[in-house]
Automatic annotation (TrEMBL):
Role summary: Lignin degradation and detoxification of lignin-derived products.
Class of the enzyme per the UniProt entry, highest EC level: oxidoreductase
Taxonomic classification: Eukaryota, Viridiplantae, Streptophyta, Embryophyta, Tracheophyta
Organism expressing this protein natively: Eucalyptus globulus
Protein name (record): Laccase
The Plastocyanin-like domain, residue ranges: 39-151, 168-317, 416-552
Catalytic activity of the protein: 4 hydroquinone + O2 = 4 benzosemiquinone + 2 H2O
Keyword annotations: Apoplast, Copper, Glycoprotein, Lignin degradation, Metal-binding, Oxidoreductase, Repeat, Secreted, Signal
Entry GO MF terms: hydroquinone:oxygen oxidoreductase activity; metal ion binding
């Protein structure tokens, strides 16, 4: 797959500059050095040409290959026109939050014309993860897979496949994303809806000016392939299927699952899913297709109806139909039963996993879309969309939370994020009165956890403004056990009786269902400052996120590592870049980006 196999340049400067870091780190496995060069490049899709910022001249970006236990150094050279950070999604980075890459949480951005080197520590992860920009909406064009092979001397928990394949699902916009977002934020309207989805950078046969570049996957009859899937899309869960070929799901978020067969998969933004595909059908050409699963009925109701396609093509001499077969098992856009059924099929490959049982912190967190009022003049107010967790809409400080915490600098955050919402009501009732919840409070409120504390969180979806939809929640620095989901309002007496405490999947991203709840548990064993948020980027833009601070343990090995000698500097006005694209005098979202 040429688009994902871009050669990563090794810089002698990086090697020399990182020797001190290496000497200060305990390294297990191999050490890898790569360069990421960010610069603008023109791309033509949907009959239109645009320039966008990409890594190493590729969209999607280069795939990184490591083994479990390896260490990775990536020197990011920003030759673009705006600041960017890179997040190593799903990599826990033990005691190493300095290199997590969450803008305004663990670092400020890498300014144009500068560079910054990330240290990425792979420990328990095995399977597929990914990297992406974590600055504003930059990840729409800056992302790529991470393939983590088993450590030397170990193997997959399933028969060795005959080959491997990677597919990255993403969103495509013909317009200038930053300019459009700024205009929509200023106008108080919904944020961007993609014009197509892509598979390995191509929309496929059902989109204009696209059928000559549709991605093709050549297979040999009788062989089995490990297919690694990533949903790098901005705001949509996606159904995925291969015509006439069932898949065997074997992993998600770099953790193995009990294998199960399915006609389709559901994959949320931020998730990776690994499946086995056996080429056992009559030789021919078969469509690989993805389309949105749409769970919302919000007033901002537009969504991308396109079907992204690639073609699975058998090698050899044969006469194939002129048109590939389309997957009949691909669910329709609003098929919640199919979505729910897939999620409930996921089980940890290990029975009797070490689920946290000594819970010392229980949190009940509502996830809501809201609105707030902006006074335009003495007589006029306008309504602007917002998002919240426990009615708190996150407000980015101008210096990152990690620096403020580590240096013990006050004034940038408070430690009063609540364990419960401020009010309880019929969370899932349709047509709730607009005053059901107060206007969300904008604040930089974090939750502090003791080292090794065992935490249970129940996320409760709400239908405020008739806006309930699936929210894929992602936690940095930790993976968690998904104990269960359900529809309606969580009942703290009866619903825990349904928890899967035997073989719950171990994930870093999981969805709170529309008009329902999600229960997770994790051990706060990773000291540092860790973002958690909805992985629908428009909700992150509107403030559906917060931060956990995990305190140090009692030893050096249970404490945050020393910071590197250089971190990108923070400036009081560095967070205002999006405003440059807007003609509005209102500075509404300058600290929500």
């Amino acid at each position: 797959m040429a688009v994902c196999a871009t050669k990563l340049l090794v810089s002698a400067f990086v090697v020399v500059g990182l020797l001190l870091l290496l000497s200060a780190s305990i390294v297990h496995g191999d050490v890898h050095y790569h360069d990421f060069v960010l610069k603008e490049k023109n791309y033509t899709r949907l009959c239109s040409t645009k320039s966008m910022l990409v890594v190493n001249d590729s969209f999607p970006g280069p795939t990184i290959y490591v083994k479990k236990g390896d260490t990775l150094y990536v020197n990011v050279h920003n030759q673009g026109g705006y600041g960017v950070t890179i997040h190593w999604h799903g990599v826990n980075q033990p005691r190493n939050p300095w290199f997590d890459g969450a803008e305004y949480v663990t670092q400020c951005n890498i300014s144009p014309g500068t560079n910054f080197t990330y240290q990425v520590l792979f420990t328990e992860e095995e399977g597929s993860l990914w990297w992406h920009a974590h600055s504003e909406w930059a990840r729409y064009s800056i992302h790529g897979l991470i393939v983590i092979h088993p450590a030397d001397g170990t193997s997959y928990p399933f028969p060795q496949p005959d080959g491997e394949k990677e597919m990255v699902l993403a969103s495509w916009y013909t317009e200038d994303v930053y300019e459009s977002i700024a205009e929509k934020l200023a106008a108080g309207s919904d944020l961007l809806v993609s014009e197509a989805y892509t598979i390995n950078g191509e929309p496929g046969d059902f989109c204009e000016c696209s059928n000559e570049t549709t991605h093709r996957w050549m297979v040999d009859y009788g062989k089995t392939y490990l297919l690694r899937l990533l949903n790098a899309g901005m705001n949509a869960e996606l159904f995925f299927a291969i015509a006439d070929h069932n898949v065997t799901v074997v992993g998600s978020d770099a953790a193995y699952l009990k294998p199960f067969s399915s006609e389709y998969i559901l994959i949320s933004p931020g998730q990776t899913i690994d499946v086995l595909v056996t080429a056992n059908q009559p030789p021919g050409r078969y469509y690989v297709a993805a389309r949105q699963y749409y769970s919302n009925m919000f007033k901002y109701s537009g969504y991308d109806h396109t079907n992204a396609t690639a073609i699975l093509e058998y090698s050899g001499n044969y006469t194939a139909p002129s048109t590939p077969v389309f997957p009949s098992g691909l669910p329709s856009y609003t098929n919640y039963k199919a979505a729910t059924g897939f999620v409930q099929s996921m089980r940890n490959i290990i029975d009797h996993v070490n689920v946290p049982m000594n819970i010392t912190t229980r949190m009940f967190i509502t996830v809501s879309l809201n609105q707030f009022m902006v006074e335009i003049n003495d007589t006029t107010e306008e309504v602007y969309p917002s998002a919240s967790v426990n009615n708190i809409s996150w407000y980015n400080p101008w210096t990152d939370v990690l620096q403020a915490y580590y240096r013990n600098v006050s004034g940038f955050y408070t430690t009063d994020f609540p364990d419960d919402p401020p009010t309880f009501f019929n969370f899932t009732q349709h047509n709730l009165p607009l005053n059901t919840t107060a206007e969300p409070e904008r604040g930089t409120k974090v939750k502090v956890l003791e080292y090794n504390e065992e935490v249970e969180i129940v996320f409760q979806n709400t239908d405020v403004m008739n806006s309930s939809e699936n929210h894929p929640m992602h936690l940095h620095g930790h993976s968690f056990y998904v104990l269960g989901t359900g529809f309606g309002i969580y009942n703290n007496e009866t619903d825990p009786l349904t928890f899967n405490l035997i073989d719950p999947p171990y994930q870093n991203t999981a969805s709170v269902p529309k008009d329902g709840w999600l229960a997770i548990r994790f051990k706060a064993s990773n000291p540092g400052v860790w973002l958690w948020h909805c992985h629908l980027d428009k909700h992150l833009t509107w403030g559906m996120n917060s931060v956990f601070i995990v305190k140090n343990g009692g030893t050096e090995d249970t404490s945050i590592r020393d910071p590197p000698g250089y971190m990108p500097p923070c400036y009081p006005d560095s967070k205002l870049r999006l405003e440059e694209f807007s003609d509005s005098d209102e500075k509404l979202y300058s600290t929500l980006m």
